[in-house]
Amino acid sequence: xxxxxxxxxxxxxxxxxxxxxxxxxxxxxxxxxxxxxxxxxxxxxxxxxxxxxxxxxxxxxxxxxxxxxxxxxxxxxxxxxxxxxxxxxxxxxxxxxxxxxxxxxxxxxxxxxxxxxxxxxxxxx
Amino acid sequence: xxxxxxxxxxxxxxxxxxxxxxxxxxxxxxxxxxxxxxxxxxxxxxxxxxxxxxxxxxxxxxxxxxxxxxxxxxxxxxxxxxxxxxxxxxxxxxxxxxxxxxxxxxxxxxxxxxxxxxxxxxxxxxxxxxxxx
Lengths: 125, 133
Known about the structure:
The complex is a heterodimer. Chain A has helices at residues 2-46, 50-55, and strands spanning 73-83, 86-94, 104-111, 117-124. Chain A is α+β, with helices and mostly antiparallel strands. Chain A has one domain. A 4-stranded antiparallel sheet of chain A has the order 2-1-4-3. The termini of chain A are far apart. Helices cover 46% and strands 37% of the residues of chain B. Chain B is rod-shaped and about 90 Å long. Chain B is an alpha+beta fold. Chain B has one helix at 2-62, and strands at 66-82, 84-89, 98-101, 107-122, 127-132. Chain A binds chain B through residues 1, 4-5, 8, 12, 15-16, 19, 22-23, 26-27, 29-30, 32-34, 36-37, 39-41, 43-45, 47-48, 63-66, 108, 110-111, and chain B through 10, 13-14, 17-18, 21, 24-25, 28, 32, 35-36, 39-40, 42-43, 46-47, 49-51, 53-54, 56-57, 60-61, 83, 100-106, 126.
């Protein structure tokens, strides 16, 4: 009787684990797309205007990007210039909390109108 | 006299447990199937919205029209307009759908199409066209 119950439990929880794994695999590309939405929204809002980027503050609020509440977002942006083979970091901003675990990722590189450039890294989980 | 009774009780209990297990598996299977359908719709909607946002961002920065192609593993029905994209995997008859509204200033030309592949073209002014390839 005990062996029978144990066998049923193994089948049940094994099946549940397989289903959960397949759904996670299905949603993994969605995380990359969500990260792309966040990064693209920031780029669309700021364009290649150095003034807009200077005044910009990264936000990890999902509603600011049309994502579901509870979505964890990490944004890290660095503005730099290259002159005489020297890289000078003009500013660097990031949201306070990093995203741990398997997260979707998007990177953008934007050349600004004053000759500087911004590297934008977004993680979403 | 006692042994047959015990045997009957044991077999009856096993049958009851089996029936309970089968009905539990059926209900859970239905739940998992619904979750899989919804996650498929969500994933497809994010793919389309991500392609729209990415093309619009590139078009704005480059000052040129930018196109990209989104491929699906099954036909999807896409209805879009303004800033909103709604996707139903499997075609228009599927009641399961997922909708995403972008906050970025884009203007998707109204479209309703069912396809395995979509071509997304964005222009520097924020206009986005989605067509079947």
